[in-house]
Amino acid sequence: MLKTGYNFIKMSQRILSTIIAVSICLSSFAVDLSAQEKKDDKKWEISSNLGIEHRVDVPCVGLGLEYFLTPRISLEGEFNYIPKIAHALPPRDWYPRGEDVVRIIGEDAKYRLLWDVNFLFYFDLTKVKRPTMRWFLTVGTGFQYDRREYNVVSLSTLELDKYRYGEIYYQIGFGAGFEVNIKEDWALRILYKIHNPPDELMTRRLTLGLSYRF
Predict the structure, then answer these.
(1) Residue 54 half-sphere exposure, CB side, CA atoms within 13 Å?
(2) For the chain, which domains are there?
(3) Is the pTM of this model over 0.90?
C-alpha cells in the first residue's frame, strides 16, 4: 500500500510539473494572441467522440470539456474508454498460495481508461470571428488505468472464480485535428492522438467528434 501511494504521488508530481512547464513555455504566445483578437462571449465547449484504436482496431469513446483562455487557446479535461486493450500484469505475490492456489484458465475482459488535461491551440483557416474551418494541435498529460479480469479455477475445490487486477500509469499525449462548424455553436471535429509512445503502453486514437460551444 505504501509503495502504491508513493508511486501515485510521484505520478501526480510529474503531471503537475508537465502542466506548469507547458504553461510557462506558451504563456507569451497566449498573451500575444489575446491582445490581437476580440474576446468571444462563449468560453466553454463540450465534446464527445467515437473512433478506433489503431493497433487492435477496437472502438473507443470519449468526452471532453474545454475552457477557452483566449479565442485560440483552450484548457481541456478529457476522458476516454477503450475496451479490449490493457497492459496489466499481476505481480507474482498477487496469486493465491497454499490451499487457495488457482490456475488461470482464460481472460474474461480488459479495458483501458485515459484521463487527460490538455492545452489546445487553434489555427483559423478563415478570418472571421467564429471561423467555419480550423485545425488544432493538442498536448497534455494525465493518468492511464489498465484493467484485466481473469477466469480462474481453484485447484483444491475446482470452483470457478474471477480475479481482477489493474494498474495506473502516468501518460503524456499529443495530436492534431480539424474542426468544421456545421451550425451556430455546433461543430464536427476529427482528431488523431498518440498517448505514451513508443512502448507497450502506447495508444493511438483516430476519432470523429461533435462539440457544442456555450
Answers:
(1) 10
(2) 2-89+110-148+165-213 (2.40.160.20)
(3) no
